[in-house]
Amino acid sequence: MNTTLSAQSQSSDDIVQAACKSDVASIQVLLNHYASLGDLLPRTKTDIIANLEHFRVIKRNNTVIACGSLEHFTPELAEVRSLMVSAEIKGGGLGRKIVENLIETAKDRGVGRVMALTYVPEFFHKLGFTTVNKDIFPEKIWGICVNCYKFENCDEIAVLLKLK
Ligand SMILES: CC(C)(COP(=O)(O)OP(=O)(O)OC[C@H]1O[C@@H](n2cnc3c(N)ncnc32)[C@H](O)[C@@H]1OP(=O)(O)O)[C@@H](O)C(=O)NCCC(=O)NCCS
């Protein structure tokens, strides 16, 4: 375990910032970890790079310790994706910090609805999201989920935050 991280769960220096190309490797380390546990869907390096402009990160010592992205289906509907916090500092408020930043970004862009598919709906409920039927997001199901290995037996829960 990384003792530096575990000793300091949240620091006032933890600022949320746009991701840059040098963050891709550490985003992928985090993603591979949670994908191997089945918590998150795997993404290729190419996919992360193609969507890098949507990622927000928190870094310590030039390493990403928390991140998430806000990706659009339409100008009105966006999704929180690849949300994760380094295992040593889960529960320290960084997930909230990332999602609050993504919500502010969504508001600035005039997005009406922010959704996510998740195994931790309770976390999203704390941030004002409600659980909904995932059938209300055909853009997600037929645009992305259809290519996922879990498509036939997806047990993720859909959550939604209405901004308008
Ligand atoms: C889910 C995750 C991003 C949350 O980030 P975090 O930094 O651990 O959570 P925070 O400390 O910001 O928690 C914010 C609130 O949500 C609650 N919460 C966090 N994780 C929770 C969980 N798994 N179940 C229930 N509540 C949870 C916290 O208790 C806190 O409540 P409070 O405001 O009343 O104190 C993080 O735990 C993680 O990376 N998990 C593994 C990957 C994953 O599942 N990502 C989500 C994909 S949609």
Main sheet: which strands, in order across?
Answer: 1-2-3-4-5-7-6
What structural category do the secondary elements indicate? alpha+beta
Uncertain residue ranges: none
Q: Largest sheet at a glance?
A: 7 strands, mixed
CATH overall fold name: Aminopeptidase
Strand segment count: 7
CATH superfamily: Gcn5-related N-acetyltransferase (GNAT)
In CATH, what is the class? Alpha Beta
Mind telling me the C-alpha Rg? Answer: 15 Å
Helix content: 25-40%
Oligomer: single chain
- CATH architectural grouping: 3-Layer(aba) Sandwich
SSE ordering = HEHHEEEHEHEHE
Beta-strand content: 25-35%
Mean pLDDT: 92
User: What small-molecule ligands were found?
Assistant: coenzyme A
Q: What is the count of distinct domains?
A: 1
3D shape: globular
Protein described:
It is a single chain. The protein is α+β, with helices and mostly antiparallel strands and 164 residues long. The protein has a single domain, classed as Aminopeptidase, CATH 3.40.630. It contains six helices and seven strands. It has helices at 3-7, 24-37, 45-50, 94-108, 121-126, 138-143, and strands at 16-18, 55-60, 63-72, 77-85, 113-118, 130-132, 157-162. β2 (55-60) and β3 (63-72) form a beta hairpin. The chain is globular, with a radius of gyration of 15 Å. The termini are far apart.
